[in-house]
Design a protein that fits this description.
Elements lengths: L9 E2 L14 E8 L1 H6 L7 E5 L4 H4 L3 E2 L12 E6 L10 E10 L3 E4 L11 E5 L6 E9 L12 E5 L2 H13 L2
Parallel strand pairs: 4-9
Antiparallel strand pairs: 1-2, 2-3, 5-6, 5-8, 6-7, 7-10, 8-9, 9-10
């Protein structure tokens, strides 16, 4: 039901502890997702794009993203996963670094340490495919469901070539 979707988003870039908000906060003006997520909540389609109501990226720089075509193109790449896990003090940012274990057409599997609350965090690396941090996936799921490789790896939606083009198109249309 579209009425069940959360729309009152607040983004606090760089927050690292309660009250430590060096760049203030931003809201969202527009939200996009893939039809397979919207219609059926398919984890392989769990990707969202958000238009912020501020231009904090002009101050901080922009987080890049990239696609690498091929069924095993990301295997072995070092990943960083940075977010706000619910098992740590509220509002504190944590990072873990590991390697991609399995690459599928629409999903990336890794063993970076994660916990509830980190969904939506970037799975990224530094500078190999673009200047600075570049996302290859968006974290969404922990271990323990489905078969292999889901059962033993954390995982997130892969930024495929088609998704890279979609993100670029939305960004281009929205400045």
């Amino acid at each position: 039901d579209p009425g069940d979707w959360y729309t009152d988003h607040v983004f606090t870039p760089g927050e690292n502890g309660p009250g430590n908000r060096p760049l203030g906060s931003c809201g969202a003006t527009e939200l996009w997702t893939l039809p397979g997520w919207y219609d059926a909540q398919s984890e392989y389609q769990d990707l969202g794009i958000i238009q912020l109501d501020c231009e904090v990226g002009n101050e901080t720089g922009w987080f890049g993203y990239f696609a690498r075509p091929g069924p095993k193109a990301l295997n072995g790449l070092v990943t960083h996963l940075r977010g706000y896990p619910g098992d740590k003090p509220f509002g504190t940012m944590w990072t873990d670094r590991k390697q991609v274990r399995v690459t599928q057409a629409d999903m990336v599997f890794y063993r970076n340490d994660t916990f509830g609350g980190q969904s939506g965090s970037p799975v990224f690396q530094w500078g190999l495919y673009c200047a600075g941090p570049c996302a290859m996936a968006i974290h969404g799921y922990g271990i323990g469901h489905g078969g292999t490789p889901h059962q033993v790896n954390n995982h997130g939606v892969r930024i495929s070539t088609a998704r890279e083009a979609l993100i670029a198109s939305v960004a281009g249309q929205n400045g």
